């Protein structure tokens, strides 16, 4: 039944409505595919009983003519989303077997729309990482391979389980989160489409926090239309989230295929960083030409504070992380490791519960927030953040509708290849994506070609606040020009 797993979201939805197969049959096909692909380590928890129960409920609703927007469609859920009655760990030892008694707002919306949960997907511990190598459950494997090589590649981070599962066709689509590129970078590495919505478009309630002013929920899907369908059911106002914005959710799917004639697409000169591979530069120019051929106007723009975005991000994000993760002390939250006194218990609990990258970011965050360094680091980084946001506002005020950039500085790298690299070298994976989070803007990563080694490469489109529709329209043009990219089933 693997052919059922080759259908897109839109195709599967149409076939279910026509009763060509049942939701139970569709989900059984995915459960079989998941079992065959366990070597990818994309899932940290499979929920077959829940999936089949909800699929049967979907069949009943379809029979009654009451199908929701996602009725019967099998999805994977990043392990950062709280799921009622189902273990949620943020892929950290410190949460142990935490089973939430509540559902995140986003997954609640998707469930109400009829979506079926196949299981919980791997991610970097507390979403801190660019390769998904910090997970307490081990590293998910990218289903793609370099030409002539069997070396395992990373699926990107922090949403590596989501991107690997979608690319391997062991879920139709997946939830993910993006704090500095954690949707767009893994999507780029796996030939999938990743959408980071405007900050406030999707509720953060019930999602384990990393950096609260940067985190945003979003989808990873096989193509632009599927991403638009998923996004439509994830977005929406939530009074429990003080940062949620009460604004209507448009029909994103209707934007796919919309003409881009007359749109002005900005190409920022500051994104031409030193050492950029020639194939990335070529891909970028090719994407601009494809949009131009579709009727868009390409204009060079300037975002002068771009070079400060990465260092500012790695001050703001760890600062917020150190605050958010302070609750995991073995007393109020998290698994406890005993000690001779409360101080030693704190030390033992956090040393055993947190991995090295999480500990590093907590320490950086505590340092930049400390009395002697708060003004020198944290306050200055927030000022830079304001300038970055103003750069984008200036460009959009000048009539630019969207901005085109590379999504990543390279294709996927090997598992363990960066083990001896400095943390800063790993952080450079986010060089093209962090500005979007710092400014609270929407961004989408869309596959646009293959590297010389046969690996996916992607372009990024950045939009005005709450104008995801323009991004879906422009991303669809690039997708149509380049086709879709599918990994071979080698596992």
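^ Assign residues to that structure.
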């Amino acid at each position: 039944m693997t052919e059922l797993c080759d259908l897109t979201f839109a195709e599967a939805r149409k076939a279910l409505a026509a009763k060509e197969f049942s939701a139970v049959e569709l989900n059984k096909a995915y459960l079989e595919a998941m079992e065959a692909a366990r070597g990818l380590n994309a899932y940290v928890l499979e929920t077959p009983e829940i999936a089949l129960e909800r699929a049967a409920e979907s069949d009943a609703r379809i029979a009654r003519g009451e199908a929701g927007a996602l009725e019967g469609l099998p999805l994977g859920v990043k392990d950062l989303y709280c799921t009622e009655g189902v273990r949620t760990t943020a892929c950290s030892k410190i949460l142990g077997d935490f089973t939430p008694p509540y559902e995140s707002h986003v997954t609640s919306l998707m469930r109400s729309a009829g979506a079926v949960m196949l299981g919980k997907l791997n991610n970097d511990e507390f979403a801190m990482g660019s390769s998904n190598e910090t997970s307490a459950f081990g590293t998910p494997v990218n289903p793609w391979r370099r030409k002539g090589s069997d070396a395992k590649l990373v699926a990107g981070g922090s949403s590596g389980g989501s991107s690997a599962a979608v690319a391997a066709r062991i879920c139709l689509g997946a939830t993910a989160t993006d704090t500095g590129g954690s949707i767009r970078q893994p999507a780029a590495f796996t030939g999938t489409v990743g959408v980071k919505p405007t900050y406030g478009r999707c509720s953060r309630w019930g999602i384990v926090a990393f950096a609260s002013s940067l985190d945003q929920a979003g989808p990873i899907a096989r193509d632009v239309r599927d991403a638009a369908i998923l996004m439509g059911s994830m977005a929406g106002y939530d009074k429990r989230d003080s940062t949620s914005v009460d604004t209507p959710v448009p029909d994103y799917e209707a934007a796919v295929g919309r003409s881009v004639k007359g749109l002005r697409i900005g190409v920022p000169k500051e994104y031409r960083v030193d050492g950029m591979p020639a194939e990335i530069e070529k891909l970028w120019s090719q994407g601009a030409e494809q949009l131009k051929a579709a009727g868009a106007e390409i204009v060079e723009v300037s975002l002068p504070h771009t070079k400060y975005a990465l260092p500012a991000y790695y001050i703001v994000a760890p600062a917020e992380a150190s605050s958010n993760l302070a609750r995991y002390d073995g007393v109020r939250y998290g698994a406890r490791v005993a000690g001779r006194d409360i101080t030693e218990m704190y030390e033992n609990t956090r040393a055993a519960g947190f991995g090295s990258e999480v500990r590093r970011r907590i320490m950086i965050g505590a340092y930049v927030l400390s009395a002697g360094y708060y003004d020198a680091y944290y306050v200055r980084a927030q000022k830079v953040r304001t300038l970055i946001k103003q750069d984008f506002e200036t460009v959009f005020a000048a009539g630019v509708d969207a901005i085109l950039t590379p999504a990543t500085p390279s294709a996927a790298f090997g598992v363990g290849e960066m083990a001896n690299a400095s943390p800063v070298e790993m952080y450079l994976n986010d060089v093209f994506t962090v500005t979007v989070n710092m400014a609270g803007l929407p961004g989408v990563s869309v596959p646009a070609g293959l590297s010389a080694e046969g690996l996916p490469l992607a372009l990024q489109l950045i939009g005005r606040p709450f104008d995801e529709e323009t991004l879906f329209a422009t991303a669809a043009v690039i997708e149509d020009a380049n086709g879709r990219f599918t990994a071979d089933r080698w596992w």
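The longest helix spans residues 374-397.
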